[in-house]
Every structure is written in structure tokens, then in C-alpha cells.
Design brief:
The protein is α+β, with helices and mostly antiparallel strands. It has helices at about 30-40, 45, 85-100, 120-125; strands spanning about 50-60, 65-70.
Length: about 130
């Protein structure tokens, strides 16, 4: 480009991204249940990572085709399994839910190992 020709630089204006997606839009949860079951049974196999790529190959006639190439990822994801009793898990879940920032504070917070209030019992009940 000659030195006396002005350079033209495009102006980029950011635009807000509007997303109308909500978790309530997910109607079919079966694939999530299958993944959870697979993670529970064999987490190391389920979390195995595979790189997927492609290469172009020319045959003897000069025709080109694409081949799928897979390889093991360099980073390995391992599951840290932790076995807990169901009662302990329920108590931890109830504690987390009742003390979440979105739950309004109560005037009578439970103390230590006190018996759960009637509104807490449904969280601790077996399904």
C-alpha cells in the first residue's frame, strides 16, 4: 500500500447477547440419568477423554477423502470417589439447602443435633 493511501479500519460495536434458554426448557432428563448411572458404575471409563480430529488422504487415483482420527487426550480426568452413608448425605444436603443464600434466614436456626422442624422433615424424609 502506498504511504499516501489512508488505512481503513473497521469499527466493531459490541452487541448484547440475548439468551432465552432456561433449565426448565429441558424436558427429557434421561440422558443425564444415564450419565449419572455410568459415572456411578465406572467413573474412570466414563470420564476418559478422547481427542477427535480429521486428516485429508489422497488415494492412488488422486481422489481426496477425509478420515476421522482419534487419540487419547494428554490430560487425564480421574474421579475421586467418596463413599458416604445415605443418612449423612441427606443431612448434608438439607444443611446446604437450608443455609443457602437464597433461603431466607429464620429466627430459630437449628442448634447442633436438635430435632428437625416440621418444615425440614420433608427434606430429610426418604423418597
Amino acid at each position: 500500500m502506498p504511504p499516501d493511501t489512508p488505512s481503513r479500519v473497521p469499527v466493531i460495536k459490541p452487541a448484547p447477547i440475548v439468551s432465552t434458554f432456561s433449565l426448565t426448557d429441558i424436558n427429557d432428563t434421561e440422558q443425564f440419568r444415564r450419565l449419572g448411572a455410568a459415572l456411578r458404575l465406572n467413573p474412570d471409563d466414563t470420564l476418559r477423554r478422547t481427542l477427535v480430529g480429521a486428516r485429508v488422504v489422497c488415494d492412488a487415483s488422486g481422489a481426496r477423502r477425509t478420515e476421522l482420527v482419534t487419540s487419547t487426550a494428554t490430560d487425564n480426568v480421574q474421579a475421586q470417589g467418596q463413599l458416604l452413608a445415605e443418612a449423612d448425605l441427606r443431612a448434608q444436603l438439607a444443611e446446604a439447602v437450608l443455609h443457602a443464600s437464597v433461603v431466607a434466614a429464620r429466627a430459630d436456626p437449628p442448634a447442633g443435633n436438635a430435632a428437625p422442624r416440621p418444615d425440614q422433615r420433608r427434606l430429610l424424609r426418604r423418597p
